[in-house]
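Example (one chain per record):
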Amino acid sequence: MDTLRFKEICATTISAEKERNGIGTLGEKTLHAALKLYFEPNKASHETKIGPFVADIFSENSIIEIQTRAFEKLRKKLSIFLEKYPVTVVYPIAKTKWILWIDEHTGIISKKRKSPKQGKIYDALRELYKIKPTLSHPSLRICLTLIDMEEYRYLNGWSEDRKKGSTRCDRIPVELVEEIYISNASDYIKFVPIELGTQFTSIEYEKAARTDLHTSQIALNILACVGVVKRVGKRGHSYLYERAETNS
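Predicted structure:
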């Protein structure tokens, strides 16, 4: 991890994107562009056609895909790419986030306010579930990048203050905090909180991971699929899970 180089890339990318488009017209382009340059500085390796698809990065006979959301769009790509090359999927998570609001009518941008939510690796689970059948593939690697970022949103929501249901228009990376690699199926143990006992339910997982029940159920579904945990029975009305290493 090179935090200084990431900052330099962010500054260059933000300046170029603002000059070309201006904040509010970018979608996810700033974050995506910065990550693409961070993982591969040589632009000649960007946007390479492989079969019917275009890879974000193709270098040294391997592929890197920067996916900021909508992992369902990766399914067909991965089915083709993984037949021939190792693939790393990079997914950015907002560690610390500051919100800025854009008034679509006046163009005025509010002062930034820090979100109370802190991002963590469990935030990736709903997206990873969308490519669950490929998670155990020996040529697939996941890189979760925890990044401090500024999020710009339009004031176009349905609530009185126009914030609820609003549209996100861009995320500006500020600082790279951590890179977490899932290089094989056993690495998914990183999604099992240390404080959990050898056996636990989804409700106990929810509390230990400090997430919601639906996310904990998705997590355990994925973890069982890759063989990190195993369903061993029931405790009351809840399924009971066990760490896979306890079965050896």
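Caption: The mean pLDDT is 89.
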